[in-house]
Amino acid sequence: MSNENITKEEITAIFPKVAEIMADALGCDVEKVKLNSSLISDLGAESIDFLDIIFRLERTFKVKIPRGKIIEAARGELSESAFEQGGLVSDAGVARLKTFLNEVPADRFKTPLKSAEIPKLFTVETFCKMVIRQQRATAAAGGAKPA
Amino acid sequence: MNRITALQPGTSVRGNYLIPPDIADFQQSLVGEAVGQLAAWAAMAAVDFKCRPVAGIAGLIELLAPVRPGQTLELSAELESVDIEAVSYRGEASANGIPLIRLQNCVGPMMPVEEFDDPQLLREHFAVLCGNGSATGGFGGIPPLAFTRNGGEPGKSARATLQVSASAPFFADHFPRRPVFPGTLLMNLNLQLAAALAAEIPGRWKLRTVSDLKLRSFIPPGEQLELEAKLGARTENSVIVIVETRKEKKLVGSARVSFALGGNS
Predict the structure, then answer these.
(1) Structural domains of chain B sorted by starting position, each given as residue range(s) with its CATH number in brackets
(2) What angle (nearest 5°) sits at the alpha carbon of residue A53, between those of residues A120 and B241?
(3) Which site among A22, A51, A72 would you substitute to test the B interface, given the most B Cβ atoms closer than 10 Å to its Cβ?
(4) C-alpha angle with apex A106: A101 to A109, nearest 5 degrees?
(5) Domains in chain A, ordered, with CATH?
(6) Which of A91-95, B43-47, B105-109, B253-257 has the lowest mean pLDDT?
(7) Which of the four, A40, A114, A133, B91, has the lowest number of CB atoms within 10 Å?
(8) What is the ipTM of this complex?
């Protein structure tokens, strides 16, 4: 998992554009979009907005973002059953999420954590990191270098 | 949609549609719907009819020329990506070589097809469309739908209430297993309200584009909706109107509608 190596400088470099995209997609002022804003709780995003944001990010940053794969990426080497059971994320799963989503303040991880509520954890920085990860993957595959 | 004339699976699709000559009117929003339906067929075929797209997002719709009954629409759509989560596409409709409408950055969330339709019937209909085509003339025009104006400030905002019918004929097709008020009809009403607001502003305003169109939730039969059109920005030559639809204060749809000065139709 490469997100631990993502630097603040990399995030700061793309944040203004990501914030602009979020504001356009959500119909809010760009000033309202902070790096640590929760998309759902703070910015009122719904599932259609997530789709909108991902496609806008793809078009703007010329990357392919695997939809619906954030949680799969967060799960890493944990099996699905070790990650969650009966709709609840296991202790090991929560530990994985805390590492993968290390931009999310610890107090936002509720116990027990329902799998369906994982998207509530996503912040603007989560999406910045997602773009950077995909830019790196594209560059590694011989595509365009990250801007 | 009468016939699919070319299909590159998962990539592009072309088709045509003869607008019945005997209907009174065929709104431009229906031309957009025809392009969207063409893309939907291609998307469903790409995932073996396991999922179907539903109305979601249209980044930009350019209304390029008027359309009239009796014309044959030449439709095309390019699928930018398609999987079981979403289809992203752009498309165009023209008649006699003249572009009528252009759609860009459209996204349709994919839903399990069995919730809405019989997958086998869809496959069979798709085979007909890709073969000799379906019969023409089945569309009788948009049923009369009217909102009730109930407030606003002339030239600045307009509000209206829409009572969605509990049992309109279009619910039988949209969709057979789950009736949903068509997003195209909702947008058509939104455009009417936006045009009514623009008409209150001095000048002769012509609808040019619809952008950032987003439909957030399904509208079942019988719902009461609140429509609002607000003046967003105005220059000497253009007017932007923001349209929003709410159900009990919850936003269910929105778009940005632009009008330009002039035009003959």
Answers:
(1) 3-130 (3.10.129.10), 148-261 (3.10.129.10)
(2) 115
(3) A51
(4) 80
(5) 3-140 (1.10.1200.10)
(6) A91-95
(7) A114
(8) 0.88
